[in-house]
Prior knowledge:
The complex is a heterodimer. Chain A contains 17 helices and 10 strands. By secondary structure, chain A is α+β, with helices and mostly antiparallel strands. In chain A, a hairpin with a 2-residue loop joins strand 4 and strand 5 (141-142). Chain A starts with a helix and ends with a helix. The model of chain A is unreliable at 10-34 (pLDDT under 50). Chain B is mainly alpha-helical. Chain B is flat, with a radius of gyration of 27 Å. The interface between A and B is medium-sized, with 30 and 23 residues.
Amino acid sequence: MRLFRHVRRTAAVALALALTGTMTTACGSSAGSGGAVSLRFAWWGNADRAKATQAAVALFEKDNPGITVSTEYESYDAYFQKLATQVAGGDSPDLFQLDRATLGEYQQKGVLRALDPYLGTTLHTGSVPAILLSAGKIDGKQYAIPGGQTTQMLLYDKTLWERAGAAAPAAGWTWEQFAAAAEKVGKATGVPGSTDFGWAIDWFEVWLAEHGKHLYGANGTLGFTAADLSSFWGMTATIRAADGLSKPSATTKMDGSTANSALVTKQAASEINYDSNLTGYLASYSGGTLAAAPLPTDSASVSGLAAMPPVSFAVSQRSAHADAAVKLLDFLTNDPSAGALLGTTRGLPPNLSTRTSVCASATASAGDKAVCGYESTVSKLVGPSFGNWPTGAAAVKRDFQQIYDNVIFGKTSVSAAAAQLVSDAQQTLSQQ
Amino acid sequence: MTGSATLRQTDGRDIGPAPASKRDGRRSAVRSRAARRRGEGRAAWLLLTPWAAGALLLTLGPALVSLYLSFTDYNLFNPPHWVGLRNYTTMFTNDPRYWDAVRVTAQYVVLVVPIKLAAALGVALLLNRGRRGLGFYRSAFYAPSLLGASVAVALVWRALFSTGGTVDHLLSDIGVHTGGWIDQPQYAVYTLVLLGAWQFGAPMVIFLAGLKQIPADLYEAAAIDGAGRLRRLWSVTLPLLSPVLLFNLVLETIHAFQAFTGAFIVSGGRGGPGDSTLFYTLYLYQRGFTDFRMGYASAMAWVLLLVLGVLTLLLFATARRWVFYAGQERP
């Protein structure tokens, strides 16, 4: 009996000890996690952008000891497949990158947090040009903050163009002059003069603007006809047939990344892209000197260049740490040191004072210098954005490329393909 | 008697009724057998629970949900919206890319299954002779099957067959300028056939097991009768191997219809160039995870399931004509 009581007492003491132990540990851990906030930040882009962004994030973590940020980045297509799955599963990153084609779609799905309550208090946009901010506005509310400023460019291999004796691209040149130069380069060097630019709806948008039209009307309708598209794709077909544009096998791989670029893989001597990718091209190009030039235009008044954010940052509606996410967003937008680290990896810095200091910096990288240099030479040509894209624009953009594949591989005629794209696009837009 | 029931329940071996139940006479023996069976049933269910839970919750449940979704319009973000048979009618009547995908997949299956089975059988026949280092060869030929479904090998394939890749270089050196095969619609699918056929290890191992089962005396008898090597292959090996052949044929056909990884990686997820590698599963994936038309993707999945079911039935139906089971008259 005494033994039994002894055992019981020991057990009780042990139990009490165990309980207190658990409670102390419980207290300890809750105190720890109370202060620490962990954020997830995702974007797409080339390696140089990732390196710069991770450096800026590391600086943010150093300045804000309570916040840790885990970063994720992919190529464009993979990024959106992953993001959509995460968002649908309620596991969205807190801060993520969108573009013109996707912003409207994600806003409509109720995934984005309106940033107006933070504006002027924790999120400062005073130094960001209004022309860029307007790209992040939907129905009068600010859903996204521009990550930079970009414009279209023709990036060409100076060495090849000079060897072919082709006229250097210059402001105000026409598509006809471009075609003649590209064909000359193709015939003289064996490398087609330019990447077939019929693959991306973005370059069709430029051509449309020069002809007084828009991709999309004000209320999310289609702004062009099959005839417009036929003449655009007809133009690329003519230049392609004369060795001026890349072969279908190279064009089909285009996705805007430098890894799959026909210019970088030496299957074209020039390429149209946004100058936000310029640093990526310079980092991966070898065996020639690249130079950026304005796009050709058929119009006396429209240059074909427009200022727009290459990417925008949005905060998840469901983020548990929206305040911290906004803090990171503000840091990336306005902090001078962050701006210096990010440089021009998303085009010109969105913040004007950062932009001035990045472009004037004595230690600016070759890429930064190239972007600043190009933007300053074309600054008089750059007009306002061609307009925001409606929901469904991402699907239209994919369809555009897929149908163009059929054109270049000879599966359909230009006119049939143009008619199909218009009918597909109208259907897509009407379903939204 | 409880003892015997418990014993059987725990180790599952039939040890026969315990001596006690023998004395209890027939009725109690019957009762004990019934009880034993009940106990056994309970044990079986208990042991099956993890598997059953997985099958119901992770396979059957989602499959039924996808059947429901196939009659809806569902974009992941908003609740599904019932549209009846619209997904199915669109698919069959108003989606040219769907038929592109069907054509590409059929072409792939028709090519890859025979090539893969022939390679598997050929290598199995070679390895079936007792030679030194057999284990090594078996592993070496089996390795691609383990690696082949992986992303890494598909990436290697992409590097090998792209423009400026290894194969392009080697062919250019001997004066054949084809460019990268994966960048041209007329060749792209063949690189995937090659990738698929290269993974013949799994059917090969099954063929090897089948070959080991064929009694040596049949060959001896055939040899004494003067049958040559080919004659023995045709009249002894193939008939006796036909059940294994049927098994491999069914398995590989289903497998080929479900091919995805290679096409996804090699074409960068797009099924290009010009939709020439747009496998059915890849198009399904695009519809679901790029366009977010989950209803449409579900409908596609159910059509694939039905087609696979019908094809498997057809294969089994033809089996009566050519599959030979030992002890049977040859048809």
